[in-house]
Amino acid sequence: MQKRNYLGLAVLPLFFAFCPSLSAASYTWDFTGSGGTNCPITFGRYSCANPGNSMTFTSYGVTVTVSAWYATGNNTLRSATLGQYSSGLGVCAAGDTCIGSGQQVDNTNNAGEFLLFQFSAPIDPTSITLQSTSNGGLNVSYWLGSTANQSINLTNMDMTTSLSTLGFGSQNTGSGGTGSVGTVNFGGPPTTSVNAILFGSKYGYSGDYFDIRSMSGTGMSVPEPASIFLLFTTAVAGLELRRRAKKSHP
User: Fold this and answer.
1) Given 37, 73, 114, 123, which is the most exposed site by the fewest CB atoms within 10 A?
2) Domain extent listing, the chain
């Protein structure tokens, strides 16, 4: 009996050695790259006749899907075109003249341009890094959401009344300071278990131009499938050893 107990205990170190961590994880999504935009080029300018594209990024098993939006003068949201550049993600809205990497998140020709971030698992957002390629301001507005819908469509939503019906909190404002690169720290309700963020140039103002380089947050780590399989096989091996020990030592 004593030998069998020792054999069972010997399996425990293997279990803890290969068990995927369930502790808090730190995430950083890097949005810089050369994905460009889905707008066809006409005479060196972008003609965004088919907005609505999206891009997906992954950090430690948690994905974030990003789409582009803009607010009209009557506070109504419309779909825009998302672009990816060496300075980060930008927005090309209807009426904009977007040339090359000049596509930024701004509030010049409308009430504001925004990116919608939708996460595959709840996170606690920490900060977001901005870069201006045209010496614009780094003032922002954002809404944090705990939404039930994992595929949000903001078309025709009202900026001032409809966002709360989707699970978004109240409008927050912040600033990335001065200079070409700045960081905005998140705050405001909800502060935890956020699975959607609407983020962009300061709503209802003018003079802010930037791309979004990266975002950071924390949450529970998501085990990789390979780690789960390894844990399963280790547990099965341990049970088999115990079965053989019982059979050999009645």
Assistant:
1) 73
2) 1-20+223-250, 24-222
CA distance 23 to 7: 29
Dihedral Cα 118, 121, 125, 128, nearest 10 deg: -50
CB burial readout 129-148, b (16+ within 10 A) else e: bbbbbeebbbbbbbbbbbbe
The class that CATH gives domain 24-222 is: mainly beta
Q: How far apart are the first and last CA of the chain?
A: 8
Please give the structure tokens belonging to residue 163.
């966002």
Nearest to 187 by CA among 200, 172, 168: 172
> What are the start-end ranges of the H helices in the chain?
2-18, 225-248
Contacts of residue 61, Cβ cutoff 8 Å, sequence gap at least 6: 221, 222, 223, 224
CA distances to 75, 101, 198 from 45, in Å = 27, 11, 27
pTM exceeds 0.70, yes or no: yes
Q: Is residue 206 within 8 Å of residue 107, measured between CB atoms?
A: yes
Angle at 120 between CA 210 and CA 159, to 5 degrees: 50
